Amino acid sequence: MENDTICAVSTPLGISGIGIIxxxxxxxxxxxxxxxxxxxxxxxLNKWKSHTVKYGYIIDGNKILDEVLVTIMKHPKSYxxxxxxxxxxxxxxxxxxxxxxxxxxxxxxxxxxxxFTKRAFFNGRIDITQAESVMNIILAQTEKSLxxxxxxxxxxxxxxxxxLRTKIFNLLVELETMIDFAEEHAIKEIQPDIKESINIIYxxxxxxLKSGQSGKIFTEGIKAAIVxxxxxxxxxxxxxxxxxxxxxxxxxxxxxxxxxESVISIxxxxxxxxxxxxxxxxxxxxxxxxxxxxxxxxxxxxxxLLILDGSQSIDALDIELMKNLKNRQYLVxxxxxxxxxxxxxxxxxxxxxxxxxxKISARTGYGINTLYEKIYQLIEKGSGTLKDPEFFLNIRQExxxxxxxxxxxxxxxxVNENFSLDIISEQIKFCLLDIDIITGKNLSDEIxxxxxxxxxxxx
Length: 459
Prior knowledge:
Layout: E1 6-9, E2 19-24, H1 28-35, E3 36-38, E4 52-60, E5 63-73, E6 84-89, H2 93-105, E7 109-110, H3 115-122, H4 128-139, H5 143-153, H6 156-180, H7 187-220, E8 222-228, H8 234-242, E9 260-266, E10 269-275, H9 285-300, E11 303-309, H10 316-323, E12 330-335, H11 345-348, E13 357-359, H12 368-383, H13 395-416, H14 421-439, H15 445-452
Parallel strand pairs: 1-7, 8-10, 8-11, 11-12, 12-13
Antiparallel strand pairs: 1-2, 2-6, 3-4, 4-5, 5-6, 9-10
Helix pairs in contact: 4-5, 6-7, 6-14, 7-13, 13-14
């Protein structure tokens, strides 16, 4: 880990009211003293207390670059556990660029993606699971996913993993002690105790895995594809669900040529809604591509919302689409109930049941609350009971926990088959190594770099 000073713009580039430039490293305080002039010139920067804000100007020699607020955070009570500063300037490109260039000219290096958080990890402020949750906070799509990510940053997952590690470590110590005094123990006598300890560890690891998988749905969300023939009200339904004019609505069939995506929250779960092109016999290459993509979404979306026009009779294409719903999580949504009702519901019941059928009007909003509830029931059916999770697992963490469970199963077999304590102990050591990989104690530099390179610069 380099012991230099880094800086970066921590807010999105563009025109905004405020921009923030973040600095971290041993030269932070010296550089701030050189480039910052307090509005009250009687203020002594040498006596500047940590975690306080001062108003003044960023200067380059005698030239004022911008009017700013500067916050100082002295080590070790900072995000990186280094000396840090944040310059709150005006959010225009010129202002931020000029201040950043001035910092770089004073010997500061431009930070790489995620380097501030990486320093927090290397300096022991957070472990790797907490570092990964920082990115999840940034990417959170609902209030619930944000809440879970903040709990994880506060150590909700780290605490569970550390408790699991303690149990594995204690078992390993017991085994090593038994090996040292092997003549005092008969393997058959201690088998029940070893098996019970392994069983407790297994249930603990399994509980973490199941809870983390349940929590993942609140962060990754569910994809729901709106499909149907042209002009049945797919785009109108998208606009109703999102409460925005996301899609162009027209009486002309085939208005939507490509999939339009939007995210809404269903009881805290991000639901990515995909409004697809109307499915019919296409008349051109572009329309054909749109129809093919719509059929593709029917296959890969977790939930399919098939829209039928309640003011029209069912035709062969409607029947074909309903047949394609077999083995899928779906709802048949009969739209346009505000118009004279002509659709034959008995014909629909040949392919589905009343529980999976709902009548709505995308124009008036009739049935929308029932639709929300039925979508949630489908999510719950596909994911099990949706409890209130404190954390979730990413693919890396989930894979390692599964490896630990496999190792524990293998260890139980070794105990049952009367293998030596040395071999059993070595198998438990694999579990301990995996635990330390989850928290970052046993990670290679390559994996650490791959985790942080996904971060934005300035975080």
